[in-house]
Structures are given as C-alpha cells and as structure tokens.
Prior knowledge:
Elements: H1 7-23, E1 31-39, E2 45-53, H2 54-95, H3 97-105, H4 111-122, H5 126-134, H6 137-142, H7 145-167, H8 170-183
Antiparallel strand pairs: 1-2
Helix pairs in contact: 1-2, 1-8, 2-7, 3-4, 4-5
Amino acid sequence: FARDSRVSIRHVGRALLDKLxxxxxxxxxxxxxxxxxxxxxxxxxxxxxxxxxxxxxxNKWVDRRLELEVSVATxxxxxxxxxxxxxxxxxxxxxxxxxxxxxxxxxxxxxxxxVRKICTVMKVTEDExxxxxxxxxxxxxxxxxxxxxxxxxxxxxxxxxxxxxKAKPDVPxxxxxxxxxxSDLSDTGIR
Length: 191
C-alpha cells in the first residue's frame, strides 16, 4: 500500500489516540497485549506474546484492516466474475437451444459423445459442455435472456465498486475508525 493512502486513516487514528490519552492518566503508559499464533516447522502451534503501545496497536490494526479489505474485495470480484461467466454460458446455451434439443434427442449417444457434439456445435470447452448438460432443457427454455443480461449488468456494476474498494481500501476503514471515534468514546464524556 502506498504510504499516502493511509494519511487520512492515520489522522483519524491520531484523534482516537488523543482521546485514549485523555482516558489514561499521563503517568500510566497504556499498553495492549497482542499475540501471534503460528505453526512451526515441526507442526507445533506456537504463540508469541507481546505488549504494544496503543499507537502501535492501532497502526497494526489499520494495516491489517487494509489488507483484509483488499482480500475481501478480491474474493467478491472473483465470485462475481464466475457468476457472469456462468450467465454468459447460459446465454450461449439459450441461443443454441434448438441445436441442444436435437443433440439430446439423438438416440444411442453416450454422455461423452453428447459432450463432444455440444463442444463442436457451440464451440465450448468440455467443462462448459458438462455445465450445460447439468441444466435441463425445460430449465434452459424458461431462462429469460433479458433477466440474465440485467443480472450481468448489475454484477459488472458491483465489480466496478469492488475494484474501487480494492484500489483505495482506506475508505471503509476510515469510516469504521470514525464510527469508533464517535460512538465508543462518546460514552466517556470526552470530546
């Protein structure tokens, strides 16, 4: 992550630290306990304990939250892309519905022969042909082309939003920090 992308987060984090400083007396140096769990080379679970000043703890938390935002956005983008690819395959199957019907009504064909025929006619891979075979003809004929296209358009919009989050993950984290600053510490009477 670029260092400048965290400037606004650090600013809010600094304001949060200032409020925490007021909570802790000046003589008491506040620390938080932290631990890291890992599996060593022998396969044993190990835990390292340490204490961190609150400022370091918040910085580590911000770094972890930014990594998590990118990870979640990447996962969701991949999931939406897979759904779009599936819908595109269904749209292709709908356009070849008559040919699929003829192939499936041929007598004496094994599953592999049907798959090869679908691959040849529709110019798809074997995996895609198997996916198409998993749908029944009745189910394919009831699918609406406009509904699938609308669904793809909505998914593409969702992907565009997720790509923005992935490119600039500090926005959701900043909102979360602001919510913490406004809600949790307001109970203490410190502003």
